[in-house]
Amino acid sequence: MKKRGIHGAVLLIIGLIVTGLSWWLNIRNQELKLLLFVVIGSVMALYGAIKLLFVKKVEEKVVSQSLAKEVANEVAQQKYKHCPTCKTTAHHHDGFCRKCGRNI
Ligand SMILES: [Zn+2]
Q1: Residue 50 lies in a domain
Q2: Is residue 98 part of a domain?
Q3: How far is the CA of 18 from the centre of ligand 1 (A)?
């Protein structure tokens, strides 16, 4: 996820550099037809920006999902425990395992 975000940023920067450089060269030398590069650079920068925004949204979604999972796990751990001998699920307030009678 982090790599994709960097990729979007790199694409955006390269796109801007290509646009700026070709635009600057086009102004300096009218014989060079670099408008195609200006267009390519703009599209690249736009694509990078879209990718960056999209990846950020996806990352936020993943973070909130994993956070919800963590909270659910914590709740489950507080409510239930497992017998160290037979791994039977027991309630937190249980003093003994219902299956093998071991003190939990
Ligand atoms: Zn047990």
Answers
A1: yes
A2: no
A3: 68
